[in-house]
Amino acid sequence: MRSLSLLLLSLVVTLAGAASYKDSPFKVKESIVAPPRAWVEHAPAPSNHILELRIALPQPYSPLLEKHLWEVSNPSHKRYGDYLSKQEAEAFLTPHPDTIDTVSEWLASYGIYEEHLLHSSAQDWVTARVPVSLAEEMLDTKYHVYRHSETGEHIVRTTSYSLPEVLHDHVQFIQPTTMFARFKAFSSTLHWTTVPVGDASTSGAITGPAGNQVDASCNQTITPTCLLQLYNAVGYETSATNGNQIGITSYLGQNVNNHDLQQFFETYVPAASGSNYTIISINDGQNNQSIAAAGLEADLDAQYAFGLTYPTPRTLYTTAGSPPFDPDPRVPNNTNEPYSYWLEYVLSAENLPQTISTSYGDDEQTVPESYANRVCVGLAALGARGVSLTFSSGDYGVGDGDSNPETQLCFSNDGLNTTMFIPTFPASCPFVTTVGGTIYIPETAASFSGGGFSNYFSRPSYQDQAVSDYLSKLAPGTYEGLYNPDGRAYPDVSVQSDWFIVAYQGQFGYVGGTSASSPTFASIIAMVNDARISAGKKGLGFLNPWLYSVGYAGLNDITTGHNPGCGTEGFNASIGWDPVTGLGTPNFETLKELALQLP
């Protein structure tokens, strides 16, 4: 009888608590003045459209995670290379138990119970599928269908949402709400012309930066052999069995076509012919093999990352998300961005590739700062676990690639429409290695190479000296007010980024953009990791503290070129680090020697 009384009392307390959330006054949690440029309100969102609400719970121990990351990534620290396990990293991402209980009670007050929820491995994400009508009630908001005037895409979003005031300390943010980022692929300079295999109008050889010979045809067509010659990696043989791995990510319906891959291997990497890769599907990601479904971005990433590193085991992460929204209410498509799904998956995985390349991103200002910070913490957790992450720097120079002040489109998203340089995310996250682009031999900066300074993230200590040196050389007042000189500066490094030959839908053609740069640099790092692992050491993990303190000696400084945009000529490449080519392009043999000297 006493136990029944206690049960009834508990039930009353629970119901009272649930009711209290609806009684608590709402307070705006996040809002934006207006949707980003080109997004136009199209219509009210259908009430039965299903939203997959992803609720980010605060991670109170994340500052300790960052402390561990700096220690295990700093070559001069005694803990260098002492990476965290999955369980150890997760412990720093886990919310306070009170937060988990409070959010669960709030959801229950709307009839959303535990059996309806999905929790991440660290319990820091809660996912609930709800119709728009319920989401509007829970968040005291109105959703609309927005149309992108340039691409025709439709998404369901709002410009403001609120939560009961008692929940504000227990919820970091909820999406999809105010985020309009598209996380597009960076292959902006597509030159799709079919070419005869093996055709080259130039002959002979030129001297590369390491003093080695590079085929002169590489000034016209970039192939895996060109990259190995240019970056001094000819003759190095990776192991298929020492435990080293490389991974690439694929989003937005991009498919690696296996026929294209084998066609490329047969022509340019014959040793890899017939070889395969592991596919990991996330959130029902597909890898459609019809020739029409072949993805140019995915083909490029796979052909170069997998070709350069063969026979290193390789993984394709294919993540579904961001399908076009059909305004017909009978088709309730999910319009979530896919990036957080990938991050949640890899953070929950026990075994990860030592190197992972990503060639996707968007304007930093289209990503709410809370979301950007959250993703960046997740990337820090991967670094603390020993994963080297490379990201493309973007393809529009300092913003839009347009040097004409009359036609430039670099405007702030705060309602003031102030002209400003537009940094890229996740390239601006301080816990990843961001890769810019070069062209030609001798190398010069590619004009589209994304570079600049974050408006969200402050400059990390590892690059303070290098960036300060660059800024000190600028004439007083240069681009004053257009960028944040105290922000995280990028790119960190660069490699070739144009005239890459790829097999695509059964034909050979050219493609360019920093989409080509990230998998190329990741491949060089995977080869360095291969040498370390074969020597009984661990992979390099988060690269930047090493690159800025020691590894720069294994990079070729690029001192010519610039990256125009936002009505300006952009920044100039110069001696030392610069916001066009970073610290420079790799010399594999030197990087390998430097890396083997580390513990």
Q: What is the overall number of helices?
A: 14
Give the uncertain stretches in residue-range form.
Answer: 1-19, 196-201, 322-334
What is the radius of gyration computed over CA atoms, rounded to a whole number of angstroms? 24 Å
- Assess the beta-strand content as a share of residues: 15-25%
* Distance separating the two termini: 65 Å
Average pLDDT metric: 91
Helix content: 25-40%
* Largest beta-sheet characterization: 8 strands, mixed
Structural class: alpha+beta
Shape: globular
Q: Count of DSSP E strands?
A: 28
Structure overview:
The protein is α+β, with helices and mostly antiparallel strands and 599 residues long. 27% of the residues lie in helices and 21% in strands. It contains 14 helices and 28 strands. Strands 13, 14, 15, 16, 18, 20, 21 and 24 form an eight-stranded mixed β-sheet that branches. The protein has a four-stranded antiparallel β-sheet with strand order 4-5-3-9. Strands 2-6-7 form a three-stranded antiparallel β-sheet, with no helix packed on it. Strand 25 (500-504) and strand 26 form a beta hairpin. The longest helix has 22 residues, at 2-23. The N and C termini lie far apart (65 Å).
Tags for this model:
4-stranded antiparallel sheet; alpha+beta; disordered N terminus; 599 residues; globular; 28 strands; 27% helix; 8-stranded mixed sheet
